[in-house]
Amino acid sequence: MKADYIWMNGEMVAFDEAKIHVLSHVVHYGSGVFEGMRAYTVNGKAAIFRLDDHIKRLYEGIKVYRMEAPYTQEEYKKAVLDTLRANKLKSAYIRPLYYRGMNSLGVNPKPCPVDALIAAWEWGAYLGDEAIEKGIKAKISSWTRSAPNTFPTMVKACGNYLSGQLIKMEALELGFDEGIALDVNGNLAEGSGENLFIVKDGVIYTTPISSSILCGITRDTVMKICEKFGYRVVEQTLPREFLYMADEVFFTGTAAELTGVTQVDHQVIGDGYVGEVTKRIQQEYFDIVNGRVTYDESWLTFVEDE
Ligand code: PMP
Predict the structure, then answer these.
(1) Residue 156 a catalytic site member
(2) Pairing of the two strands 136-140 and 178-182
(3) Looking at 2, 156, 168, 200, which residue is catalytic?
(4) Phi and psi (nearest 5°) for 243?
């Protein structure tokens, strides 16, 4: 994780100088809302995938947490492009964040300023270089996702990731690559940082909003790929055993991209290899983000030289 600059409250700050006060509200209470985006190199230029959709989700989160954003969506989008330009990045993982800064440490965040940053750096495959090709091993987590009336899971908020950390650490400690959390009713929810898809008898299933998931932008892209390929997609609550009965299982996420799951709880999924349907959708996804196939012109925002 290294770059030249981080954009902070409208200024490009040298990477090593990009600091916040230890008494910032976010440090103590997780009071922030963020995004995770990727830029891919398309025709020699960086192109951010679904920038508008990520910024929209960020600003929806800001609204839920009653933050007053100091920048409009257009201004913030421009700052994202400036950050990639300042760092001369042709491909990147991009991390925009709005957070409550320092003023008071009462639980009420309102007296604290809403500060903003945008960082970007080069980041390879999130679940490891081999994962995209060979798939990963997952386990059902002993940690449940938060109930609907506790934290808003549709918001990508800093504090939500305490749940993700427990899921991820438990999986790694037990020798798995990732955990899959159930929702409060015991149905399947999602991975610590990925949405979940299951292929069974030619139908593609994914878990619904009501299962306390983050509605992934990659999930949406995959649904559109399925539509083009003529696969039926069913969004419904799914019991745990559906995983073990599956022909194929895969995760989706901006960081994880499309990653096959070849084992769950030591049970082999299908024939134990990344499945044919998964591979087909994965290939199409990489064709889209790399500009070889176009679904929607607005999905790629090019970082033009100024
Ligand atoms: N669920 C969780 C909990 C996540 O953190 C992410 C990553 N942002 C996802 C799902 C996938 O979302 P997206 O495809 O928008 O990256």
Answers:
(1) yes
(2) parallel
(3) 156
(4) -65, -45
